[in-house]
């Protein structure tokens, strides 16, 4: 089963992806985590993207598309994967559709975590405290830039998938376990159809 979890920064995509990994044996593929690993490893790619990520802007479509295309071919994705933070532009969504088609794969569910923007700042501030400031982009100033990037570049994916009749929405403001239940209901419905 292959899933996309969509939503702005702080919506809870990573939290729900980890729960799904444990519950359903799927692999969480977070482009943000992959890029942060490149930065920690001081690879040429990491050096290239560090300033862009620290500023809250998006890295280029080509970089993340290639990253995901290679990643989903790995053996640990055979049972399925959860895309967390990808696609983030309509160009990425289109490339994903083409890439999956070429690989003979498909998406079983595209789920949007709908959240109240005012609550996001509080969530991100909490995450910054909990992770000891591990993420350079978890601060009020950069969050604003990341939300702007979400609205301008990522939100247009919503009508893209709605147009295909494939988008399901869940209330991302509910308690974590309730969000998990809403997602489970969608996936169990999708499994029956598939
Ligand atoms: P995240 O951990 O998903 O919040 O991503 C952190 C940062 O990584 C973003 O602000 C972007 O700079 C970069 N990034 C992650 N995924 C993507 C993507 N699909 N497209 C472009 N940039 C991305």
Description:
- The longest helix is centred in the last third of the chain and has 18 residues, at 176-193.
- The protein has one domain (3-193): P-loop containing nucleotide triphosphate hydrolases (Rossmann fold, 3-Layer(aba) Sandwich).
- Helix content is 58%, strand content 12%.
- With 194 residues, the chain is α/β, with parallel strands linked by helices.
- A 5-stranded parallel beta sheet has the order 2-3-1-4-5.
- Helix 2 packs across helix 3 and helix 4 packs parallel to helix 5 (90-102).
- The structure holds adenosine monophosphate.
- Residues 9, 31-32, 35, 52-53, 56-59, 64, 85-86, 88, 92, 137, 146 line the site of adenosine monophosphate.
How many separate helices? Answer: 9
- Radius of gyration, Cα only, in angstroms? 16 Å
Instruction: Give the strand tally.
Output: 5
SSE order, one letter for each helix or strand = EHEHHHEHEHHHEH
Q: Which parts are unreliable, with pLDDT below 50 for 5 consecutive residues or more?
A: none
Helix share bin: 55-70%
- N/C terminus separation: 9 Å
Biggest beta-sheet profile: 5 strands, parallel
CATH architecture: 3-Layer(aba) Sandwich
The largest beta-sheet arranges its strands as: 2-3-1-4-5
Q: Name the hetero compounds present.
A: adenosine monophosphate
Strand % is 5-15%
Query: What's the shape?
Result: globular
CATH superfamily: P-loop containing nucleotide triphosphate hydrolases
CATH class descriptor name:
Alpha Beta
- Output mean pLDDT: 93
CATH topology: Rossmann fold
Number of domain modules: 1
Q: By helix and strand content, what is the structural category?
A: alpha/beta
